[in-house]
Amino acid sequence: MRVFSAVKIQNELVDEISSLIELIEKYKDRTRVVPARNLHLTLRFLGNINDEVYSSFLKKISDRYRFFERFSVNVRGIGFFPNKNHPRIIWVGVEENTALREVYLVAEQAARDVGLPPENKFTGHITVGRIKSSIPADAVKNIEKNFKNRFWGKMIIEEITVFESKLAPGGPEYRELANIPLGGGKNGQE
Questions:
Q1: Torsion of CA 40, 46, 49, 53, to 10 degrees
Q2: Residue range 127-134: average pLDDT?
Q3: Mean pLDDT of the region 118-134
Q4: Do 124 and 93 touch, CB atoms closer than 8 A?
Q5: CA-CA distance, 77 to 142, in Å (whole number)?
Q6: In whole angstroms, what is the distance from residue 33 CA to residue 39 CA?
């Protein structure tokens, strides 16, 4: 199964982001918008793993996340991967903070512990669109001008979700495998 750990995006934030999604949809012949139900903040992509690796990963993160308090992150601005001159992905930014970094590090360490190679990178973001073929430079400038510094809202993180991703012709389909509530400890300490 193809698996990743992530934070689901709350409906209020999805509503805020809808104006950006509407603008991206104007280029629908060249882009594919991520459906609202699929919006998420990826912590760690595990790839294709078997049930044994999945179970071990789930236990490791569950054991650690129960010591975390819920926390919030600011969602602000937009960006492009790999860059705005050759965009393939359009994303909404998530300001990194200590708690978010620690939650990511738990998922990263658990992935390494179950034998996956290190990822060693984390950029908090919510993918909202994928570019199938190049879009005009003025379209990128228009998106950037309208949303570069936009404050989308504050997101409260109360649980981590592990998803299975199945690739389909219309884009990936996600199924929730597990929801792990943050238990209320202080910054991941027992």
A1: -110
A2: 90
A3: 91
A4: yes
A5: 14
A6: 10
